[in-house]
Write a structure and sequence with these properties.
Length: about 180
């Protein structure tokens, strides 16, 4: 099984990906780790480095790839059999981001961390107004074009139902 999960920051992509990968013992691919250099979220990798990481990680028989970067997810969609779009309301994403704090706070001073959270909130709030592949519009285009099994999840209850009711995602189920 090869699964791609996309959505806005704070939508629950990483949590769901960990759940699914753990249940089926599949490798987990974080698109953030492909896009950004190690050590924080301030230095983008080169295109060549990203392409190499994507190429190598796609070789596994099964995987779960998650992230907001539609331009990277697009490469995984060529091999994926399942595409999950977490399209939760902005209010939920924002609350989760505020609760979590800035993802890079381990690498920054308090003032840098506070600025990082503000920048992340501003960027994530733009999900509905941008037009690139990291936006609602871009994710919808990827979703519409995908020809495999696809799930458009718009609320937290549907995430729970997915995990409870889908045989492929039950604990202990092999893919």
């Amino acid at each position: 099984m090869k699964i791609v999960i996309i959505g806005n920051s704070g939508s629950g992509k990483t949590w769901l990906a960990r759940e699914l990968a753990g249940r089926a013992c599949m490798p987990l691919i974080h698109l953030d780790e492909i896009f950004w250099e190690p050590g924080g979220f301030d230095k983008r990798r080169s295109s060549e480095s990203m392409a190499s990481l994507i190429r190598d990680s796609r070789l596994s028989e099964s995987w779960v790839a998650e992230g907001v970067f539609g331009e990277l997810a697009k490469d995984y969609l060529d091999d994926a059999d399942t595409f999950i779009w977490l399209d939760l309301p902005w209010q939920i994403c924002e609350a989760r981001l505020r609760l979590r704090g800035c993802e890079s706070k381990r690498h920054m001073s308090r003032s840098q961390s506070e600025q990082g959270l503000k920048d992340l909130l501003d960027w994530a709030a733009g999900y509905y107004s941008r037009g690139d592949l990291r936006s609602h519009e871009g994710h919808k285009a990827l979703f519409d074009d995908f020809r495999g099994t696809k799930l458009w999840i718009k609320d937290e209850a549907s995430v729970a139902m997915l995990l409870e009711n889908s045989p492929a995602f039950q604990r202990g189920t092999e893919s």
